[in-house]
């Protein structure tokens, strides 16, 4: 009789643990399947046009920029900080060299630096850098 009771308790304990494991796993799957907020794009219009020195000549750079976030508060912060963002990006773009932007690696580096600059401004405004990406929608050097 004691043996039967011990087996019954053991079966109940295993059943309880399996149920808890299944419930926790189902909760994790539900959280993982929760819909992500939609992507919000904000074009920084008009396009940026800057000049920079390259050896003996003056060069021009025109860059179209669009930023992407999932946070409507970040969109509003970027709209409210448009002059600050534009100033930071103009300074960044005008400090470039023609040789540095002539290959894809240079453009990607500039894109990363521009994203970091925008994230810093948004973080100062709302307390978190909720900008997920920065895209060059046009890029013309002359």
Automatic annotation (TrEMBL):
It is a single-pass membrane protein. Residues 1-26 form the signal peptide. InterPro entries: FliL. Keywords: Cell inner membrane, Cell membrane, Cell projection, Chemotaxis, Cilium, Flagellar rotation, Flagellum, Membrane, Signal, Transmembrane, Transmembrane helix. It is found in: Cell inner membrane; Cell membrane. Its main location: membrane. It comes from the Bacteria. Transmembrane segments: none annotated. Pfam families: FliL. PANTHER family: FLAGELLAR PROTEIN FLIL. Belongs to the FliL family. Controls the rotational direction of flagella during chemotaxis. This is Flagellar protein FliL.
């Amino acid at each position: 009789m004691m043996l039967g009771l011990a087996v019954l308790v053991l079966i109940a304990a295993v059943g309880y643990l399996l149920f808890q494991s299944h419930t926790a796993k189902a909760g994790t799957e539900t959280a993982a399947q929760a819909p992500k907020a939609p992507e919000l794009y904000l074009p920084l219009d008009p396009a940026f046009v800057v000049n920079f020195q390259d050896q003996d000549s003056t060069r021009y750079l025109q860059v179209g920029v669009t930023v992407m976030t999932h946070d409507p508060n970040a969109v509003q912060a970027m709209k409210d900080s448009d002059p600050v963002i534009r100033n930071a990006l103009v300074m960044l773009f005008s400090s470039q060299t023609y040789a540095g932007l002539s290959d894809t690696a240079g453009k990607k580096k500039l894109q990363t630096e521009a994203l970091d600059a925008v994230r810093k401004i948004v973080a100062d405004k709302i307390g978190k850098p909720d900008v997920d990406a920065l895209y060059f929608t046009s890029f013309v050097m002359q």
